[in-house]
Amino acid sequence: MSKTSRSLATMAGTLALVPTVLLADGPKFSGFVTGSYIYDLNDISKGPYSGYVNGAGSAPASTYTDFYGGKNASFKADAAHLTITGGDSAGASYTIDLDAGTDGIATGGSLWTSRNGFAFDVQQAFVTVPFGKSAFGLEVGKFYTSEGIEVGNSAANPTVTRGLAFGVLEFTSSTGAVLTFKANDQISGAIGAINNPNNQVWQYDGTDGIPVGYAKVALAYGDPFSGTISAYYGPQGGTSPSARKEYTSLDLTGLTKTIPNLDLNYQVNFNMAMDAGADASGNTKNIMAYLFGLQPLYHMGAGQVGLRYEFLSVDPGTGATTINSIALAPGYKLTQNTLLRAEYRLDYASKPTWYMNKNGNGTEVDQVVGGELNYTF
User: Fold this and answer.
1) Are 21 and 328 in contact (CB under 8 A)?
2) Could you give the residue ranges of the DSSP H alpha helices within 56-213?
3) Tell me, what's the pLDDT at 206?
4) Residue ranges of E strands in the chain
5) Nearest of 209, 173, 218 to residue 191 by alpha carbon
6) Nearest partner of 169 among 345, 310, 355, judged by Cα
7) First CA to last CA across the chain, in angstroms?
8) Mean pLDDT of each 10-residue bin along the chain, 377 residues long
């Protein structure tokens, strides 16, 4: 036997000794690339939002609309996103989501110099390990929230911009550890603790090492109903006097497909931060927020029409501000993987909430138009 043959035989024998549980499946790659153009009809040229779209993530201290916001009347390289997944024959798996573009600025990514730049962000990086053949497992790392209809990949959402809750009432992602369970093919869930929810205005890191409790129950009954009930409870974090007071978030997000060609998404969300607000006299008050949303998506061959309606009520202690928001986004698949969409969005608040052109004063109405091209692979 030649030296080469002996070497190959030795390698084969060594591999035969490796337990099958160590044999990996993957990695597998998927992702998307998104570019967009957005224009705020309020044409904000003065005030703290000068040159930027009204909305959370677009300027300091901004609130509620268009989380990914950004420079007004500008083309954006929103995201070049890569998802890497894999696992082994024992059922352990990993998921990694890497993001580069203007979206990463809003989600706290690094390597950006200003709001005009871009950022790199690790949106998810977690490992899931089953406990043998039992119904339980362990998930550790950074993972997306289970709250809300919308996700990071815009093409998977009914509309182009994100709604009133995304990144404000809802976490975008969080870091922690949860115990997972699967009762059957229809019912599963998780319970555990997190310590770093991104971009949530009332909750940052845990206080004195106290994590935030997290639990969810997912229901999957096919086209009639699928959905998730989620809950967060724990200290608000930070250095303010209310840092150790309770924060609570409850959310129901669901989907039904009982009507042909129609995906009907819906959401109910409640948030409360104890003693985090104040009345006109400076007395501490709870901040409370309620949201109801509907997001239907109708398919017509290569075409589609997405609609979003949301009602939000927020009371920081000085009285509630309500916002009605509606967005219409027709789209067309140029190829199997390429989606082109346009959007018109109108937000109407009960009090001046956004900035207006020239004088920089507040206004009750904000209107946005835009377009987007997305390739998903």
Assistant:
1) no
2) 103-106
3) 47
4) 24-40, 74-88, 93-101, 119-130, 136-144, 173-182, 187-194, 212-220, 226-235, 246-256, 262-278, 284-300, 303-315, 321-333, 338-349, 354-355, 362-363, 365-376
5) 218
6) 310
7) 47
8) 46 44 74 91 64 48 56 84 94 94 75 66 93 96 92 87 85 89 96 70 50 93 96 74 75 97 97 84 88 97 97 89 94 97 93 68 84 96
Structure tokens at 327: 């967005």
Torsion, Cα of 37, 38, 43, 44 (10° steps): -110
Residue 117: Cβ-neighbour burial (10 angstroms; 0-12, 13-18, 19+)? exposed
Tokens of 5: 């043959």
Domains and CATH numbers, the chain: 40-376 (2.40.160.10)
Rounded to the nearest angstrom, the gap between the alpha carbon of residue 259 and the centroid of all alpha carbons in its chain is: 27
Residue in the block written with tokens 């890569």: 82
Which residue type, as a one-letter code, is found at position 337? N
Distance from chain centroid for Cα 243? 24
